[in-house]
Specification:
The chain is mainly α. The protein has one domain (2-331). It has twelve helices and two strands; from the N terminus they run ααααααααββαααα. Strand 1 and strand 2 (193-195) form a beta hairpin. Helix 3 packs across helix 4, helix 3 packs across helix 12 (273-331) and helix 9 (200-222) crosses helix 10. It starts with a helix and ends with a helix.
Length: 332
């Protein structure tokens, strides 16, 4: 019963956040000067775009740490290049299409099963890696929200005290995970998969990866914004995390619309709306669309390779079968 109530509450919160974002975004768009947006696109220098691309590459590389620690957790060897390939494709799809449990994990199953990883181990990698990813980003987000509680209150129309409570609650999630790893008890069952506590070393690496990934993801947008007084990187990353988390709460793929609305609401007024819109659209292309296109190309290439191997094996089997029949005919 409580699980059902929680599910319904989550949906209602997502709808509420999305509706508020649409209203804010509509108000902001109405006063946009579209010629100025085009001008801001032209003013984006190549060096700023290259820095955004470098941060994007760093973020996706860091995301592979979760799958890597998951294989370390189940004590199974897997080449890091393979892990990096699968993690990149999985996260590129789930970031853009949403429903990570379906999109990203389907990719993992497709590749890992081809590399002879048993189904039970794939399930443990998926559940542990996915849970660690969520816990990591929630914990670091909680710490950053605590530092920027007033911005969250403004973005969500919540009292500042409630914003602090959200930050504390999110940070405590990570504390529970840390205590569980240190206590080494109990073994829990999640989605039918038995998970004993991980070692402290694995948890430390995961939290570090979460912090680095947030830093790279925020940097990809920060470098696309012009330098203005009053907006340093540490101030910006707090706003970025609140915008990103708001998009996650909305359950809209990629936080589309929600992310933009919160940024327009919270970024300093000396950065024009047109500048923000141009930067965010470029960020969407660099951080979301480009990785999706690369991931799709890699997926198609991998599928062609896999199907080619299947066809080769099938042709070999047919040749062996014909050869066996011919030998039987000669013997008869």
């Amino acid at each position: 019963m409580w699980k059902r109530i929680g599910h319904i509450a989550g949906i209602l919160v997502g709808i509420g956040v999305s509706a508020a974002a649409v209203w804010v975004l509509w108000k902001q768009i109405q006063v946009l000067k579209y010629d100025a947006v085009v001008t801001q696109f032209h003013d984006l220098s190549l060096s700023r775009i290259l820095l955004a691309l470098a941060c994007t590459a760093g973020a996706y590389l860091t995301l592979s740490v979760y799958d890597s620690t998951a294989f370390r957790y189940i004590k199974r060897e897997m080449r890091f290049l393979r892990i990096m390939l699968v993690a990149f494709i999985s996260y590129a799809f789930s970031h853009n299409l949403g429903f990570g449990a379906v999109t990203g994990n389907s990719v993992r199953y497709r590749f890992f099963s081809q590399w002879k990883v048993p189904l039970v181990d794939i399930a443990r990698v998926v559940v542990f890696g996915g849970t660690a990813y969520v816990l990591g980003i929630v914990t670091i987000a909680g710490l950053l929200i605590l530092r920027n509680a007033q911005h969250l209150a403004l973005a969500t129309n919540l009292p500042v005290s409630s914003a602090y409570l959200i930050g504390v609650g999110a940070a405590l999630v990570g504390s529970v995970y840390l205590v569980w790893s240190v206590a080494k008890w109990p073994t829990i069952s999640l989605k039918g998969v038995e998970l004993p506590p991980p070692g402290l070393g694995i948890v430390t690496v995961q939290f570090a990866a979460a912090a680095v990934e947030w830093g790279f993801a925020a940097g990809a947008l920060f470098f696309l914004l012009p330098v203005h007084g009053g907006l340093d990187y540490w101030h910006f990353i707090g706003i970025f995390v609140i915008a990103y988390v708001s998009g996650m709460i909305s359950q809209v793929p990629g936080g589309l619309g929600v992310f933009e609305a919160v940024l327009l609401l919270l970024l300093p007024e000396d950065i024009t709306r047109e500048t923000i819109v141009a930067a965010v659209l470029t960020y969407r292309a660099v951080y979301f669309l480009l990785p999706l296109l690369v991931a799709a190309a890699l997926m198609v290439t991998a599928e062609v390779t896999i199907q080619g191997r299947v066809a080769t094996r099938w042709a070999w089997w047919r040749r062996q079968k014909r050869r066996g029949r011919a030998q039987n005919g000669q013997t008869g």
